[in-house]
Each structure stands twice: as structure tokens, then as C-alpha cells.
Specification:
The chain is of the alpha+beta class. The protein has helices at about 20-25, 40-50, 105-130, 190-195, 200-215, 220-230, and strands at about 35-40, 60-65, 85-90, 135, 140-145, 145-160, 160-170, 240, 255-260, 265-270, 275-280, 285. Helices cover about 25% and strands about 25% of the residues. Bound molecules: biotin.
Length: about 300
């Protein structure tokens, strides 16, 4: 069945526009910024821009996405005035983890870039709003155990070398951004519902970008891994990990989530208390026994 959400069309919101973005992001060492009232997907637009020569740290922001993309070919809804949707271009040679001598393989680098997005959102929510976000590995930011942000990293590789990555972030801000529970398997929420008051999207966007800029230089540092580990959801709980988004599928693995190792791999303990590690890939994670096949 095609996605039904949203039920009605919302109007564009005047708080987010090219001028207000310029004013809020002016002091940051970003590349050029493009804003759209409506676009198919900021990741797709960033990709088009990349093909036309977008520099490192070029940023695409949209008030509304008509074909927003999630992981595993899922849709991501971005309604005008209710959400944040943006994509940052990261050129490969500028990333400390991007060099082969750093010993980071493509799968691990992709996971660290996903973590960079999730951690930057989490740290911004913690410091600016007093919230307690958790990261549902690999890419979801949860508030009160409900999804409030998702990260989609799409990389261009030349063999083992990353040429560029598009780091896309979608954040549910206002209640209108939250799909009804019956239309999604993993329940969602939004920041305003948790806080109980309105949030200025520009302030949050600025804070997330400040974190992205600061932490992207530190992907190889132990502090990056320990900060990521500190925010992991479901620690010491039984979880199921699948390769394709179906927790009951043949490739799914179940264990107690022990945390991350020093390379950022997920550590799990099986029924025999043996530890195994998950490196990367299109993995899904959820509390064991929660059943449904879609996010
Ligand atoms: C997920 O949770 O499955 C990832 C969702 C990522 C959504 C963001 S919104 C900005 C960027 N543009 C897209 O089309 N997707 C990402």
C-alpha cells in the first residue's frame, strides 16, 4: 500500500528561507548554501550539485521534500513548516577517516559518517534543549524511545577510496511531521511534542551543523567512539539485527547489545554469552520480539 501520510497539505512556513539561513549560518565555515521551498529530495539535489562540481561542505536545505528518501528504499516525509531536511556534501579527501592508511574500510567509514550525523543531532538536542536523545544504531535518533530523526549517507566510492558522501538528515520538529503509528513499524515523535513548546528550526539547524563541522575532523579519535557509545539506545537489552530491514529474516542476528568496540563496531552477546561484532552495512536494529518488518 502506498504511504498515506500526510493527510492534508500544509503551507510553506516563512521562518525558513534563503535570507534567514544566510543570517544564521553566516559565521560558520560552510560551503555555499542552497535553499528550496520544495524539492524532491535534498540528497538527490546535493548529488546533482556534486555532479556539477559542488565543493566540500556545500549544503542543501528544503522546507518540503516531495520524494524524501530513507534507508532501505523507504520514504521519508518532510512537510513544510514542520520538519528539518538538509544534506551536506563531504568531499572524501577532507575526512580524516577517508584515507586508506587510517585503516578504515568503506563499510566502517560509512558507519562513522552515519554516526557523525546521529551524534551531531543528539548533541545539539542535549546541549540546546536539555533532552536525552539516544541513537538506535545505526542511524536513528530517538527521544523517549520514539524516532525523531533519521540519517541517510550516500557515498561515491572509487574502489576503497571515498570521493564524496552526501550526509542527509531529517528531523521531526512539529507534530505535523510525525506519521501515525499505524503507518510505520517503529513509532515516531517530534521535538516539540517532547519539549511541550515550539522550536525554532534555524537554531536547531545551526547547532547540528556546528556539531557536524566540529566532529567530522575527529572521526578517528577514541572520543568520537566513546561519545557515540554513550548515546547508544537499548544497551544491555536483547536486540535483533537484520541485513535487509526484516528482523525475522534469514540473515537476522539476535543478542544482548553490549556497546561499541574501539573501532566503532557493534558488540553483541549471544545466548551462550559469546561476543560477536557487527561492522557495517544496511543493518536494522530493534528490541527483540517487536516483530514487524518495516520501519
Ligand atoms: C532513515 O531514517 O531512513 C533516513 C532518513 C533520512 C531523511 C533525510 S531528510 C534529508 C535527506 N534527504 C532525503 O531524501 N533523505 C535525507
Amino acid at each position: 500500500m502506498p504511504p498515506q501520510f500526510p493527510a492534508k497539505k500544509l503551507m510553506p512556513s516563512p521562518d525558513l528561507n534563503a535570507q534567514s539561513l544566510d543570517a544564521h549560518l553566516a559565521g560558520l565555515p560552510l560551503g555555499p548554501v542552497r535553499f528550496y521551498d520544495q524539492i524532491d529530495s535534498t540528497n538527490v539535489e546535493a548529488d546533482r550539485w556534486l555532479a556539477a562540481g559542488a565543493p566540500d561542505l556545500a549544503l542543501v536545505v528544503a522546507d518540503e521534500q516531495t520524494a524524501g528518501r530513507g534507508r532501505l528504499n523507504r520514504r521519508w516525509f518532510t512537510l513544510p513548516g514542520a520538519s528539518l531536511a538538509f544534506s551536506l556534501v563531504l568531499r572524501g579527501g577532507t575526512l580524516p577517516a577517508g584515507s586508506p592508511e587510517a585503516g578504515i574500510d568503506p563499510g566502517m567509514l560509512s558507519m562513522r559518517l552515519t554516526a557523525l550525523g546521529a551524534l551531531s543531532v543528539s548533541l545539539a538536542l542535549e546541549a540546546g534543549y536539555g533532552l536525552s536523545p539516544e541513537i538506535k544504531w545505526p542511524n536513528d535518533v530517538l527521544l523517549q524511545r520514539r524516532k525523531t530523526a533519521g540519517i541517510l549517507v550516500e557515498g561515491h566510492w572509487q574502489g576503497e577510496q571515498l570521493e564524496a558522501a552526501i550526509l542527509g538528515i531529517g528531523i521531526n520538529i512539529a507534530p505535523a511531521s510525525v506519521p501515525p503509528d499505524e503507518q510505520i513499524a517503529f513509532p515516531s515523535t517530534c521535538i516539540e511534542a517532547v519539549l511541550g513548546h515550539p522550536v525554532t528550526r534555524l537554531h536547531l539547524l545551526q547547532a547540528v551543523i556546528e556539531n557536524l563541522l566540529a566532529w567530522r575532523k575527529r572521526l578517528n579519535e577514541p572520543l568520537f567512539i566513546t561519545t557515540w557509545d554513550r548515546h547508544l539506545a537499548f544497551k544491555q537489552e536483547w536486540v535483533t539485527i537484520s541485513q535487509d530491514g526484516s528482523p525475522g529474516g534469514p540473515a537476522s542476528q539476535t543478542g544482548i547489545l553490549a556497546g561499541l568496540d574501539d573501532l566503532g563496531r557493534l558488540r553483541l552477546r549471544d545466548h551462550a554469552d559469546q561476543e560477536f561484532r557487527i561492522v557495517s552495512g544496511e543493518l536494522n536494529l530493534r528490541p527483540a520480539g517487536s516483530g514487524s518488518a518495516e520501519d
